[in-house]
Write the structure tokens for this entry.
Amino acid sequence: MANAAHAYDPPGKTAAKQGHISIRNLSKVYDPEGVNITAVDDCSLEIQPGEVCMIVGPSGCGKTTLLNAIAGFHSISAGEIFLDGELLCGPKKPQASQGADRVVVFQNGALFPWKTLTDNVAYGPMVQGLLSKAQAREKARSMLADAGLGEVADKYPGEVSSGMARRAEIVRALINGPKVLLLDEPYRAMDALTKSIMHEALLEMYDRTKVTIFFITHDLEESIFLGDRVVVMTTRPCRAKKIVDIKIPRPRDYRILHSEEFRQLVAETKDAVHEEATKAFEAGERELA
Amino acid sequence: MYVKQSGTPLATAGGPTAAGGRGGPSRSAILLYRWRRALREPTPYLMLVGLTLWFASYYLFTEGWELPRFEKLPGPVEVVTEWFSPDPVWGVSIYTEEYYRHILASCTRILIGFCIATTLGVSVGLMMGWSRVFKDYTFPILETLRPIPILAWVPLAILMFSGTETPVIFLTTLASFYVTVLNTLLGVESIDKSYFRAAACLGSKRHHIFWHVVVPGAMPYIFTGLQISMGVAWFSLVAAEMVSGEFGLGYLIVTSYVNVTYVTIVIGMVTLGIIGYITSAMIRKTGDILMEWRVRTLGGR
């Protein structure tokens, strides 16, 4: 399964036993136009190194706020976030610094349209000064080839399918050897068939790298198929409502979707998700950035 | 495993084949095909009909029926005869050196003015889009100065700059500068926020974001702006040449009016139209070369 020859060796880093995220009593209050909106309220969550943690909740519940706080895109109002014991943000430092140890894959895709896939992937190691431009491109090429994108490595993102682009974006994140991969509903706009192919591609990459994954979605089956743990969030203010451990052994493939175990897990979780979705719908909440 | 169905063996087998080894029809065959297809569309025929209609009415109004108020205007036949005459009645045709001196004078001024305006305009626009502080300082001034018509600057330009050449270049530069700044600023502001975030979480420093996100991201708007800026440059150049300066197409037009050589006016106007078209096309072409990603993305499928 895992390709041992694959060059996953970011300098000075080993993929294992890294990427422990500890979110403690996190709160975030937005203040648009003088009206306080509590997006996240007293949310605590421990994510173990190498875990695939799926965050499920209705649209606009504050899941993305959580991700933005970890990535350092937004400040927090109270609480702390630690990464491997180091404080990312807390009362004295409300906004985490942004760095390549926590790479985000965005909802609508954010490959630079003016760079080829190779140059997109080579960008991280190049600007961090880890590799020369030529070395970075060479490594980018080999990683793209491993992800089945060798033939389109010299194309621009606009020339390839959305599925390929999204896969390349994950490669662009992984080349940095991040401690955590933060995915913000990356497959939201895809049709079911493409989605299932993307899932298998992601799982294959995960099995190879064992990087900690923080994955936001509102698709329950997706979360059970991919995750080690599914965290169902309450609607705004966002808090962990129910945590379900997924003990389906890895490597997984699409056949487990039809297994009794899978169906059981969906049934077990569906009520919680549905309840929150109904609440969110009735509240008529609009999504926050 | 399952993912690797999609063409991975090929990709891992040979790097170089992956890049350029795509067979298919030759370039000339594609070109021929495109020509044939274009001729089956109504576009070229409608264009021909449009041009014919336009010229026919121009001819009939002036030389054919000699309608009132039109009979003084030089008609197409008269203009074309004069324009291509080796021995022009009014002194300017494609065979006279003077004609090219006017063109050269105007083109030189445009080149200098446009280059200064583009360099300054793009830099200022990028800075304004990139740095909040810089924008706060400069934006109100820019927005107050921008609406002042270029002709209102003529007296000050003549006072500020000595000679006949520099005031004209100043006026040309000023007009295109505003357009370029505004479009560049708009270009930077149009860049999707997630590109900045992506760049930041891939470990960029501020200067990386500037060169890898801000500049290429604003490029499409910059080039749209440059085309407008070129049009504005010609507009203000001719206006400035009418007021001051020796030689140049604007100067030719205004002196022809004074000397009652109306045919030459039309020759000057048509020449401006053609050169303006060429300069715009050059900018478009440069844009296409610099933004290959855009050409390939928009036209590739």
Chain A touches chain B through 48 residues (CB under 8 Å). Chain A has a mean pLDDT of 83. The helical segments of chain A are 63-71, 117-127, 133-146, 162-174, 192-209, 220-226, 260-283. The domain at 1-101+178-289 of chain A is CATH 3.40.50.300 (Rossmann fold).
